[in-house]
Write a structure and sequence with these properties.
By secondary structure, the chain is mostly helical. It is built from 18 helices and no strands. The chain has helices at about 5-15, 20-30, 30-40, 60-70, 70-80, 95-100, 105-115, 130-135, 140-145, 170-175, 180-190, 205-210, 215-220, 225-235, 245, 255-265, 270-285, 300-305. Helix 2 runs parallel beside helix 4 (about 60-70), helix 4 (about 60-70) packs antiparallel against helix 5 (about 70-80) and helix 13 (about 215-220) runs antiparallel to helix 14. The radius of gyration is 25 Å and the shape is elongated. InterPro entries: Ank_repeat_dom-contain_49, Ankyrin_rpt, Ankyrin_rpt-contain_sf, SOCS_box, SOCS_box-like_dom_sf. This is Ankyrin repeat and SOCS box protein 1-like. Keywords: ANK repeat, Repeat.
Length: about 300
């Protein structure tokens, strides 16, 4: 709806000396007022200014506020006018990060198309992909991955204070929250199934249980057999791990379907078809897996490389 002539004359006198007006309009989703303030009232200089608006407690730029409210028209307009799509608040939260937390796929697509960094800000310990994985948002995950999000990014929440706490990756998050579809998508996209995997011995066993838990051991802890099967299928190196050597007769082994599956897989070599697929994907590397669809190959071969039905 266009602004009335009376409103056009009235707004400049009201907002002329109030820098927060731009932020309030963005937060409310009032794109007409936003346009008028920038185009007619000369508030373009505030487009990336961080201020505390009436509804918040930390300084934010207008674009961040528009994303918080999910106001697509305001987001597009601010980006068109040159707003920084990678601005961050005092907590290191970028617009893309906030959109991921809010599960807003539309906002995420707009921001990524405007060159938002898919991993968010380096000042934030978590990434947009972490939240999308935790919430089971497969479409958002796929969008982030297609734009270059780091699927193997590791977050150690307190490396100095608590060096033995678990180091998280999106794969760990997907297992922790029982998101099998997310887990498979990450593996298809090249996530490392051998993260934190090393030989364990008596001297470092306690540390390995807490600070450097392999995904294989993690799957044992929570007894998710479907996750265990996918780990093996996507190349988990079981020669680096032995249930009996690591855990002995622990209760984690007894009546645990994951332990039985790992023991059987470890005792039998991979079939040639599986070994060839792993080798091809390893040669391509994580960053080139997305280009498989562009190769002059039959569709069934592309599906084979992506672990899809052929």
């Amino acid at each position: 709806m266009a602004l009335s002539e009376n409103r056009r004359e009235f707004l400049p006198s009201i907002f002329k000396d109030i820098p927060l007006s731009l932020h309030e309009a963005a937060f409310r989703g009032d794109v007409d007022t936003l346009k008028h303030l920038i185009d007619d009232c000369g508030l373009i200089s505030n487009i990336d200014r961080h201020l505390i608006w009436s509804g918040g407690s930390i300084p934010c730029a207008p674009l961040l506020l528009a994303v918080i409210g999910g106001h697509v028209d305001c987001i597009k307009f601010l980006i068109h006018k040159g707003a920084n799509v990678n601005c961050v608040d005092d907590r290191g939260q970028s617009p893309l990060y906030i959109a991921a937390v809010n599960r807003n796929l539309n906002c995420i697509q707009i921001l990524l198309q405007a060159a938002a960094k898919p991993n968010g800000s380096a000042h934030n310990r978590c990434t947009p992909l972490f939240f999308a994985t935790r919430d089971g948002e497969v479409d958002i995950m796929r969008e982030l991955i297609n734009h270059g999000a780091d699927i193997n990014s590791a977050v150690h929440l307190s490396p100095k204070l608590y060096p033995n706490t678990l180091i998280n990756t999106p794969l760990y998050i997907s297992v922790s929250y029982n998101k099998l579809d997310c887990f498979k998508l990450l593996l298809q996209s090249g996530a490392n199934p051998n993260f934190n995997c090393k030989r364990l011995d008596e001297r470092n066993r306690l540390q390995s249980f807490y600070g450097e838990v392999s995904l294989v051991l993690f799957a044992l802890f929570i007894r998710y057999s479907e996750f265990a099967k996918l780990l093996v299928e996507f190349g988990a190196d079981l020669s680096l791990f032995s249930c009996n050597e690591t855990l002995g007769n622990s209760h984690l082994i007894l009546n645990n379907p994951c332990a039985l599956y790992f023991q059987m897989a470890r005792a039998n070599p991979r079939i040639l078809q599986s070994a060839c697929r792993l080798l091809i994907r390893r040669c391509l590397g994580v960053t080139r897996l997305n280009y498989i669809n562009d190769l002059p190959l039959p569709k069934f071969l592309k599906n084979y490389l992506f672990y899809k039905p052929v």
